[in-house]
C-alpha cells in the first residue's frame, strides 16, 4: 500500500512518529563584576522566555507556556474560554424534544384561578396569614389602579368645605330647602341639585348614555366627545372590561344643546318626523327591489318552462279509466286495475 502514497505524504506520516525534542535551556552565567563579562555571558532564561512568548503572539498562537518560571500549572485559571473550549459546545439533544410534561418543574396553579407567582406581600392583613402566604394579597391592585380609584373617589365624594353659616350655604335649585347636594351632579355636572330632587325629576337630571343621546336627540360623536360642550361621567363598560369606558350625560344639558341645534322642541320633532319618513322610504325602496328581483326570477322560471315544453313537449297528464276488478293477491286483498286512455299506462291498486 506504500506505493499508492507519494513522497510528501510519506514524509508527513514519518514526521508524526518522530520523538519530540526537548527544549534547549540556556543556563545563566554566574554574575561577574564588570560590564564586559556580563555582556559575554549571553541572554538569561527569562529573556529567552519573553522572546518566545512575543514570537508566539506574533504568529497568532496565544497558548501559554506551562512549566516555565512565569506560570504555574497548579494555579491555572479554568474560567478562561480558550483553556477549556468544550464548555462552550451546546448539546445537540434538547430536553423538550423528548419530554412533554416535566413533573419536576410543574407548579400547582389551583385549577387555573390563582397563580402563586402573582401573589403580592401584604403585611397589613395579619388576621389571615395563611391566605396571604398561599394565595397572595386579598387586594391584587397595582399602584396605578389604586391612584386612579382614589382620584375617582375624590372627584365624586369630596365636596367643598362647609360654609361659615348655614344661611349662606347654597341650596337646591328645585326645592330651595336642602343644602346637601348630590355629589355626582354637583361635582361633575356642576348642578346644585339634591338627591331627592334628582330622583323626583328624572326628565331633567337622568343620566343618558351616548347611544341614547344619538338616537333621541340626534347628536353626533364629535359633539358628544367635545368636553367644552358637555360634562360627562365615565364608568367601566358593563358589557366587558376590555371595551371602551361608558360615558354618561345629564339630560338637561343634552336637551338644551339639542333644542339650540334643531330650533327648539318643534324643530326636534320635525327632524324626528323627517328621519322617520326617510326610514319608511328606504324600507319601501328595499321592498320594491325585492319584489322586482322576485318577478325577474318568476319570469325567468316561466321562460325556462316554455323552452322545456318547446323542446320536449308539455308534461303528459294521465287520464285513467274506471277501475276494473283484477282479482286478489297472495294475501287475499282485492286488486283493482286502471288504464290511461291516452298512453296505455296500467296501474294496480289494492283495497285494504
From TrEMBL:
Listed under GO biological process in this entry are: base-excision repair; nucleotide-excision repair involved in interstrand cross-link repair; nucleotide-excision repair, DNA damage recognition; UV-damage excision repair
Annotated region described as Disordered, given as residue ranges? 1-20, 32-89, 309-329
Residue stretches spanning the membrane: none
Swiss-Prot/TrEMBL keywords = DNA damage, DNA repair, DNA-binding, Metal-binding, Nucleus, Zinc, Zinc-finger
Composition skew (Basic and acidic residues), residue ranges: 9-19
Major place of residence? nucleus
Which InterPro entries does the record associate with it?
DNA-bd_dom_put_sf, XPA/RAD14, XPA_C, XPA_CS, XPA_sf, Znf_XPA_CS
**Molecular-function GO terms, alphabetical:** damaged DNA binding; zinc ion binding
A cellular-component GO term for this protein: nucleotide-excision repair factor 1 complex
Decide whether keyword Metal-binding is in the record. Answer: yes
* Superkingdom of the organism of origin: Eukaryota
Q: Where in the cell is it found?
A: Nucleus
Q: Where is the composition biased (Polar residues)?
A: 46-60
Is Transferase included in the keywords of this UniProt record?
no
One Pfam family of this chain:
XPA_C
Query: XPA C-terminal domain: from which residue to which, for each copy?
Result: 204-254
Concerning its family, UniProt says: Belongs to the XPA family.
User: What name goes with this protein?
Assistant: DNA repair protein RAD14
Which source organism does the UniProt entry give? Saccharomyces pastorianus (Lager yeast)
Amino acid at each position: 500500500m506504500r506505493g499508492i502514497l507519494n513522497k510528501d505524504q510519506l514524509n508527513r506520516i514519518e514526521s508524526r512518529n518522530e520523538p519530540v525534542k526537548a527544549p534547549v535551556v540556556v543556563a545563566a552565567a554566574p554574575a561577574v563584576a564588570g560590564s564586559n563579562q556580563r555582556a559575554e555571558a549571553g541572554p538569561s532564561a527569562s529573556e529567552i522566555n519573553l522572546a518566545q512568548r512575543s514570537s508566539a503572539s506574533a504568529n497568532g498562537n496565544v497558548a501559554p507556556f506551562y512549566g516555565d518560571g512565569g506560570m504555574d500549572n497548579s494555579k491555572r485559571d479554568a474560567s478562561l474560554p480558550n483553556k477549556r473550549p468544550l464548555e462552550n459546545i451546546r448539546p445537540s439533544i434538547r430536553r423538550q424534544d423528548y419530554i412533554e410534561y416535566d413533573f419536576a418543574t410543574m407548579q400547582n396553579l389551583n385549577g387555573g384561578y390563582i397563580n402563586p407567582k402573582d401573589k403580592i406581600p401584604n403585611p397589613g392583613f395579619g388576621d389571615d396569614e395563611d391566605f396571604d402566604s398561599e394565595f397572595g394579597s386579598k387586594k391584587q391592585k397595582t399602584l396605578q389602579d389604586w391612584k386612579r380609584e382614589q382620584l375617582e373617589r375624590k372627584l365624586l365624594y369630596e365636596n367643598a368645605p362647609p360654609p361659615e353659616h348655614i344661611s349662606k350655604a347654597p341650596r337646591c335649585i328645585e326645592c330651595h330647602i336642602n343644602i346637601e347636594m348630590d355629589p355626582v351632579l354637583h361635582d361633575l355636572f356642576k348642578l346644585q341639585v339634591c338627591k331627592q330632587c334628582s330622583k323626583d325629576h328624572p326628565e331633567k337630571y337622568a343620566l343618558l348614555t351616548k347611544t341614547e343621546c344619538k338616537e333621541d336627540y340626534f347628536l353626533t360623536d364629535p359633539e358628544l366627545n367635545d368636553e367644552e360642550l358637555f360634562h360627562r361621567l365615565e364608568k367601566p363598560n358593563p358589557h366587558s372590561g376590555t371595551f371602551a369606558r361608558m360615558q354618561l350625560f345629564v339630560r338637561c344639558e343634552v336637551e338644551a344643546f339639542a333644542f339650540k341645534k334643531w330650533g327648539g322642541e318643534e324643530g326636534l320633532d320635525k327632524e324626528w318626523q323627517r328621519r322617520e319618513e326617510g326610514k319608511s322610504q328606504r324600507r319601501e325602496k328595499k321592498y320594491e327591489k325585492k319584489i322586482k328581483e322576485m318577478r325577474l326570477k318568476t319570469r325567468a322560471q316561466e321562460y325556462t318552462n316554455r323552452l322545456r315544453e318547446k323542446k320536449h313537449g308539455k308534461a303528459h297528464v294521465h287520464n285513467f279509466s274506471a277501475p276494473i276488478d283484477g282479482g286478489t293477491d297472495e294475501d287475499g286483498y282485492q286488486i283493482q286495475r286502471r288504464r290511461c286512455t291516452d298512453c296505455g299506462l296500467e296501474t294496480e291498486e289494492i283495497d285494504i
